[in-house]
Amino acid sequence: MAEERPLVLVADDDPNIVRLLTLYLDKAGFRVAQAADGDATLRQIRDASPDLLVLDVMMPGPDGLDICRTVRRASDLPIIILSARTSDVDKIAGLQFGADDYVTKPFNPVELVARVQSVLRRSARKADAPPVQNRVEVADLVIDLDERTASVDGESIQLRPKEFDLLLTLARFPGFAMDRDRLLDLVWGSRYYGDQRTVDVHVAWLREKLSRSRLKIQTVWGVGYKLVEAADEPARPRKRT
Q1: 101-104 and 79-83 strand pairing
Q2: Are residues 69 and 75 in contact, defined by beta-carbon separation less than 8 angstroms?
Q3: pTM of the entire predicted model
Q4: Domain that holds residue 202
Q5: Given 73, 92, 162, 183, which residue has the most CB atoms within 10 angstroms?
Q6: pLDDT tens-digit profile of 89-103?
């Protein structure tokens, strides 16, 4: 009996991209499932159990980063993000949120098929390797992604869900200034239409909870925020007497 061909789920709201990838992946020996929005993607992951997910970032419903986070909490499904966003921050964010590869649009379909094959090979090798602890460490802060917990110098700090996601995002880019719009995108999702003050409020809460840490959330005027060690904070100007 012939071995069943690997199943690739292509999740993109652009039907032309879906048709193109379906054609090339089928020729390369893969079975292909399709989804045009975030909700359909999550249903297909649950019902079809694909071997790999090609995931567009900007889709109706839960966006690609939201789906990536959701999937990573439950499984090691290989994920290749497909996005028109080309900045280094977006690429790093996609990989840090659990993607195995990041491909920018426009793309060469032959190259993407090669990446699918490469990620599947790496995934097969990883399945035989000992498990790696899934956490982020910066100075005295330790964030456990599997347990969704955080501690400062070994002492647990209690975080609301969005406080945890915001701290995790800042900790993934220590010393890097993140503007409020980018933080809203990465933490609340690209479909969130709330006010930028939401970020400021959550930063204020986090600052209080990080009061014992060497790490501080520094305001970058005209930009947003960055996570720094206290020694890296600029000296405040002295008041004139």
Answers
A1: parallel
A2: no
A3: 0.69
A4: 135-232
A5: 183
A6: 778 878 877 889 999
